[in-house]
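Quick board copy: two proteins, each given as sequence then tokens.
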Amino acid sequence: MKSKIVVIGDAPLVLGFKLAGLEEAINVSDENFQEELEKVLKKPEYGIIITNERMLNNIDWRLKKKLDNIAYPVVVPIPDRAGGSREGDEIRNLIKRALGFDLSAK
């Protein structure tokens, strides 16, 4: 089964990934971000969801808890022009959560 990568975010993030060749991209505003994210989470063809870290940090706590407890799809937050926050997961932690073990552990 092949998994698709989708980008959900503001115009600069979506445009950047489209220019890089990614076809699946959804341009959203702060107001409809959570609704679009929930729609994408229900689609089994998406294995990786790339999104704005700032937008992801502003979602409802129930959806945050759901995202923390699922391994698939992997949600990858990308900092925007304002920079990263301390709330975002590192890629290593995302991979660890998806696989169930730490690849970098000796």
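And the next:
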Amino acid sequence: MRKEYDFSKGRRGAVVPSPGKIRITIMLDDDILEHFRSRAEAAGMGYQTMINSALRDAMSRAKGKGAEAKPLTAAALRKILREELQAA
């Protein structure tokens, strides 16, 4: 070991940058975080990776519904039921 080290050209942060990822701070409820930590530990992966995967799944489901998708209202449900009952 050296007696002195030169850190004048050192940089703070991650040693290896992660392309396509951004470091953020997010506030999560305690029970949400505990849920993902316990599931991730059982699966042998990181909890942040599991949260990212869950967010990605939610994003892809939202995209699959399309921009035109609207929630099913009572009036629309009645109309669908009437049409189906008349066809039967």
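Board note added afterward: The mean pLDDT is 85.
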